Description:
Helix content is 87%, strand content 0%. By secondary structure, it is mostly helical. Helix 1 packs across helix 4.
Amino acid sequence: xxxxxxxxxxxxxxxxxxxxxxxxxxxxxxxxxxxxxxxxxxxxxxxxxxxxxxxxxxxxxxxxxxxxxxxxxxxxxxxxxxxxxxxxxxxxxxxxxxxxxxxxxxxxxxxxxxxxxxxxxxxxxxxxxxxxxxxxxxxxxxxxxxxxxxxxxxxxxxxxxxxxx
Length: 165
């Protein structure tokens, strides 16, 4: 049993010597790693400040560009919409409601001019659910495009911050 203890003690001593041999280089490597990490964090913090300054200095122009980027698509949309037969039919349908309102308004004016008791009802226009459905579909797709743009802005920021130089 004593022989086994001596063997085990020698083995522990040998491993301890090896551990001590690598302890100093390991500590140096760990310190170097921490220094590199701190330097990278400081570099990224400086790049984030530079990016933030750029955003603050250019946000108005970029916001205007974003707004203006909708002008041409809006024009194309209105042209495409006007060319749709269903849209032309819908416009005709809605114009009939407006015509009805103008007839009622004219009749009210005439009754007033003749000093008659008002028997003509007030014109009423009814909202159509079709418009709400279209608007909801447009907003859902527009929000998705906006979210994609937001992701692109985040990627630009990260690329700027990660860039060396």
